[in-house]
Amino acid sequence: MSIDVNLDKATAQVRETGQNPAQRPTIAGFFDEATFTVSYVVHDAETSEAAIIDSVLDYDPASGSTGFGSADRIIEYITSNNLKVTWILETHAHADHLSAAPYLQEKLGGKLAIGADIVRVQEVFGKMFNAGTDFERDGSQFDHLFTDGETFRIGKLEAIALHVPGHTPADMAYLIGDAAFVGDTIFMPDYGTARADFPGGDARQLFHSIRRLLRLPRETRLFLCHDYKAPGRDEYAWETTVGQERDHNVHVRDGVTEDEFVAMRTTRDRTLAMPNLIMPSVQVNMRGGHLPEPEDNGVSYIKIPVNAVRRPA
Ligand SMILES: [Fe+2]
């Protein structure tokens, strides 16, 4: 196995947290049933510093109107627990929901961060949506761009960012204490894994990213970005462990080979419809959650490129 210094650092962090339970983060999940997304607030009980991960801006595609119900639930939780937001984290530029990061940042503060390869995503989608030169493709819409292995803190909690591409080129997982927020890589064991067919996605890369995460200690807690229930399970769930995934994940449990995974993932992805909100999500999220610049009448428009994205087989 090749040397992976950053994963070793992450492993040491989980072990250290295990010996020192005061370093375990306090975690609240907020499920948005309209997009099957889980947003999280993670905080340090000692200092009350908090991070918000993968927030949701409500969006009604028929009317083109946004709403703040989901984000306000997070604000309510932060306020009633007297938390101080220091980070607003995105695991990636989501294609199925709009981010509420700018709204939350305005109300609560905190630094907005995403993976450094967002610039590649901005390049691809900037072209697809023919965004003008006013759309900067350098990640400057974010306050911080994380690289693989970069460490940071939430109060006294230790955290490390891991680059886990495949679903998109820029996906990051954030390991905070003993809890990994894995974005769209792996889902619950009975559901499997994220799709890898968006522009810039790669099933082979996704396999490597997931297997990398699964080399963390078995007790590592995993918090997922989505859940869609699963055959035989009628309740939403978004927390599992590395051990559970290694033993039971229907797509990538121990023993499944890279080629088997890639064949399964590619075949399955060909049958999946695009997410309802892919067009508005991508245009807004590539801008760090900001709507496109208003036109001269003061109105912001979402574009739909015709025949730019394939239909499911
Ligand atoms: Fe996603």
TrEMBL record:
Give start and end of each Metallo-beta-lactamase domain: 36-226
InterPro entries with a match to the protein in the record? Metallo-B-lactamas, Mito_Persulfide_Diox, POD-like_MBL-fold, RibonucZ/Hydroxyglut_hydro
Keyword Flavoprotein carried by entry? no
Position of the signal peptide? none
One molecular function GO term is: metal ion binding
Name the UniProt key words of this record, in alphabetical order. Answer: Hydrolase, Metal-binding
Per the record, the domain of life is Bacteria
**Pfam families annotated for this entry?**
Lactamase_B
* One GO term (biological process): glutathione metabolic process
Q: Does the keyword Isomerase apply?
A: no
- Its recorded name reads MBL fold metallo-hydrolase
